[in-house]
């Protein structure tokens, strides 16, 4: 009898210990998500580069400890998407500008891997809200219907943006893959839904991404792209420099408008810390704007 009592007490203590550990882990993850935006104020590329990599290692560990925690899934989705854009694609562009095709291909594979990992975690995150993703993406209509029926909150807008952005970016670096290009509508629909729910999220990032998408080629929806870019410029008060950057490198480049291209790029380069809360992304915009004035990149636009 005494043995059974002691065993029961041990099981109870172990159970309570596990619950406490889970509570502490979930609390830490929640706090980490709330604090993660602090890096947006850092304008030092090398410091940010190391912090992004360290953060991803931390988020991967958190997910291992709490696999069902949606904050951890969100941080992984956003983190890997950000790594692909800010680090891997930056390395790819640097190699391209040096004429090192082999190194550029290597970094391109890194970027695609980052976006694929972001999509993987992002879809897992969306499944916590609604099942049926694979069946829903049968075609554009069924997918939009699935989004309309299941996603409507502020959190949904944030989740859909990062999954949609990662999906779109994966296509951009994998254009040679017909299967990826064939499912581009998935990214567009998620970004449109995010923009519908909460257009101001992340400084109107969904609208900017959609504007860039509509200018993907000279034969695409250029008028719609221009309208979205102009609207985003007004709403962000021209403080979000990735708007001007994408307006130049996507719309003006494919439109063949050199005057607009140079005007927007120079606006990015001469901007003096327009918003301290966006130092990181504005710093990245400046890095890419400097490359955009290189002869090789101007020639790619036909200038």
Briefly characterize the structure.
The protein is an all-alpha fold and 303 residues long. It is 79% helix and 0% strand. The protein has a domain at 203-303.
What's the shape? Answer: globular
Radius of gyration: 22 Å
| Percentage beta strand | under 5%
**In DSSP terms, counting alpha (H) and pi (I) runs of 4 or more, how many helices?**
15
Q: Roughly what is the average pLDDT, rounded to an integer?
A: 92
Q: What's the helix-strand series?
A: HHHHHHHHHHHHHHH
- Largest pleated sheet: none
How does this model look, in words?
By secondary structure, this protein is an all-alpha fold. The chain has a domain at 203-303. Helix content is 79%, strand content 0%. The chain has 15 helices and no strands. The chain has helices spanning 2-35, 45-65, 70-97, 101-127, 133-136, 140-150, 154-173, 178-182, 184-197, 201-213, 222-235, 241-255, 258-270, 279-292, 295-300. The longest helix is centred in the N-terminal third of the chain and has 34 residues, at 2-35. It starts with a helix and ends with a helix. 38% of the residues are buried.
């Amino acid at each position: 009898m005494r043995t059974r009592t002691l065993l029961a007490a041990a099981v109870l203590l172990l159970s309570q210990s596990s619950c406490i550990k889970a509570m502490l882990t979930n609390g830490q993850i929640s706090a980490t998500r709330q604090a993660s935006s602090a890096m947006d104020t850092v304008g030092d590329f090398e410091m940010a580069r190391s912090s992004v990599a360290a953060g991803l290692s931390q988020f991967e560990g958190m997910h291992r400890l709490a696999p069902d925690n949606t904050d951890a899934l969100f941080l992984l989705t956003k983190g890997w998407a950000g790594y692909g854009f800010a680090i891997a694609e930056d390395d790819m562009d640097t190699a391209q500008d040096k004429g090192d095709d082999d190194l550029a291909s290597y970094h391109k594979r890194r970027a695609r891997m980052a976006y694929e990992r972001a999509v993987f975690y992002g879809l897992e995150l969306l499944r916590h809200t609604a099942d049926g993703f694979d069946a829903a993406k049968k075609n554009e209509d069924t997918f939009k219907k699935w989004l309309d029926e299941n996603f409507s909150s502020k959190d949904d807008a944030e989740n859909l943006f990062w999954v949609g952005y990662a999906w779109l970016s994966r296509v951009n670096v994998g254009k040679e893959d017909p299967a990826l290009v064939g499912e581009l509508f998935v990214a567009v629909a998620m970004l449109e839904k995010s923009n519908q729910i909460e257009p101001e999220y992340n400084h109107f990032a969904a609208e900017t991404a959609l504007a860039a998408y509509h200018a993907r080629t000279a034969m695409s929806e250029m008028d719609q792209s221009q309208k979205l870019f102009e609207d985003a410029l007004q709403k962000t008060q021209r403080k979000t420099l990735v708007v001007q950057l994408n307006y130049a490198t996507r719309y003006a480049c494919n439109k063949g408008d050199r005057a607009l291209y140079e005007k927007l790029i120079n606006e990015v380069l001469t901007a003096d810390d327009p918003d301290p809360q966006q130092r990181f992304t504005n710093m990245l915009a400046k890095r890419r704007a400097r490359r955009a004035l290189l002869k090789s990149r101007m020639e790619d636009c036909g200038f």
